Amino acid sequence: MTKRTLAPASIFILLFVSVASAHTGEGAGGGFVTGFLHPILGWDHVAAMVAVGLWGAFLGPPAIWLLPVTFPLVMAFGGALGVVGVPVPGIETGIAASALVMGLAIATAFRPPLTVAAIIVAFFAIFHGHAHGTEMPSATDPLAYAAGFVVGTGLLHLAGISFGLLSRYDAGVMAIRGMGAVIALAGLGFLTGTL
Fold it and tell me: Hey, where are the domains in the chain?
């Protein structure tokens, strides 16, 4: 995909994703498709995953690739914890807080050292991964389910990166910061239960 086709695809993902509760506790039953849809159909996941790509692009190289690579790697670790039943407290709170914190980082143009940004992203990736992992054992094909949620996550990161490329322009920086504010407000809504 070119930059010109990524932006419309990103807008489509953000505007036309149907609302769904990603963590119903019922478990996944369909392998790749169910895993793929898990991050895309949960607004809490969408906000956080797009924020990772958006923040990485806003920070520029090497964060543009490091943050979106760090997230799924650590998310896989969190997923493994969920599969083997290691309890991680506050999963839903951690997922909601990820959108709030990363959205605020974007909105305020927070530019920490790369290591700090990667640690923030990695910390929240554990919660997202654990949510996926706890549902994985009941899937028809757990490996296909895992591949699906990694691909879905990657596409959401790409959506954020494509918007983040607007940071090359002054008006684009303001639009990105505004999007960060929207993501932060969504995170606050997830935390308070109003969304």
Answer: 30-192
